Amino acid sequence: MSSDRLGTSLQYRQKEKGYRDMALKLYPWVCGRCAREFVFSNLKELTVHHIDHDHTNNPSDGSNWELLCIYCHDNEHAKYTDHANYKTEVVAGHSEHVAATHNPFADLKSLLKK
C-alpha cells in the first residue's frame, strides 16, 4: 500500500473513531432497526450509520447518525445495490422495516408476585 493511501486510510479511521465515540456517548447501545441491545463485550457489532450516506457530514448533535447492528447496516446498504441492479426506489434514511416494540419483561414484576 502506498504511503499516500496509507495516510488517507489512517485519517479516515481517526475520523470514524471520532464520530463513533461521539455517537456511542449520545445514543443508547441499541440497534435503531431491530432493537438488539449491546454491551461492551459485543459493542464492535454496533455501527454508526450516516442517514444521508455522507461520511463527511458529522454534526456534533448526531442528527445524521443512527446506531445499527452489522446486519441491519448491511441491509441498509443493500438497498442501494438492489437499486442499481433492479431499479428499485431508494430514499436515504427511509426504511419499510418497523422497529421492534415488544418487551417480553414489561410485566415481569406482576408475574413474579403470582
List keywords for this structure.
two-stranded antiparallel ribbon, 114 residues, single chain, 2 strands, mainly alpha
Written overview of the protein:
By secondary structure, the chain is mainly α. Helix content is 41%, strand content 9%. The chain has a two-stranded antiparallel sheet with strand order 1-2.
Give the SSE map.
Elements: H1 3-26, E1 46-50, E2 65-69, H2 70-86, H3 108-113
Antiparallel strand pairs: 1-2
With helices defined by DSSP (H or I, 4 residues minimum), what is the helix count? 3
Q: How many domains would you count in the coordinates?
A: 1
Compressed to H and E, one letter per element, the order equals HEEHH
Could you give the distance between the termini?
A: 65 Å
Looking at the structure, what is the overall shape? globular
User: Which class do the helix and strand fractions yield?
Assistant: mainly alpha
Main β sheet profile: 2 strands, antiparallel
> Which residues sit in consecutive blocks of at least 5 with pLDDT less than 50?
none
Task: Name the helicity range.
Answer: 40-55%
Radius of gyration from CA coordinates: 18 Å
Q: Which strand order spans the largest sheet, edge to edge or round the barrel?
A: 1-2
Output mean pLDDT.
80
E-strand count: 2
| Beta-strand residue percentage | 5-15%
Give the structure's gist in a few sentences:
The chain has helices at 3-26, 70-86, 108-113, and strands at 46-50, 65-69. The chain is mainly alpha-helical and 114 residues long.
